[in-house]
Amino acid sequence: MPKGRPIVSDVNSETYWVSELIDHFRTKKDTPAYENVLYVVNGLVASVVPVYLYVTIFNMDLKTYGALYAVLSVLVTLLLSKAYTSVTQTVYLSYSATRNLGVIDESFITGKHTKKSDERTKRQAEREASAKQEAIAFSILYNNVLFFMFVLLLSFFMLKNLSGAYNYVASLGFSAALVMLNSQSS
Questions:
Q1: d(CA 41, CA 57)
Q2: The domain containing residue 108 runs over which residues?
């Protein structure tokens, strides 16, 4: 929607409020701190799980390859947390459009607040919070399943002939990159 004063008949339309919501998320780049912590912790757990796989199956002990595990775990954690953020925003926008979360109550526009409009506003805020939590949960589940699927596919089938250290770097690196690219395209 172009900048400037909208046509008066378009102000109360559903498409106007949906476009306003989309513009809000395009310009909003900050995610709350609790979401960032949640994403980093989940990304760290997801990036450390394959370490057990490589220690037990590929006989890559922690003393010898500890630095490699640490560096790659940090890198994969950062890529996964960025993917979580991207998918959460996309899914939340989808939820907002399908559940009419962007539709603003008439009392907000007219300035007449009643007890009934305050209850509607409260319910609207609860629905938005619920949709945000659902989007976060879906994002974490979706990206983790995709990441582990790529790790298993690459490490045991496509790159099985590589030595343990190279297999680990290539499998986790490519898996995190593929998840990140997939989250940006959706």
A1: 25
A2: 8-185
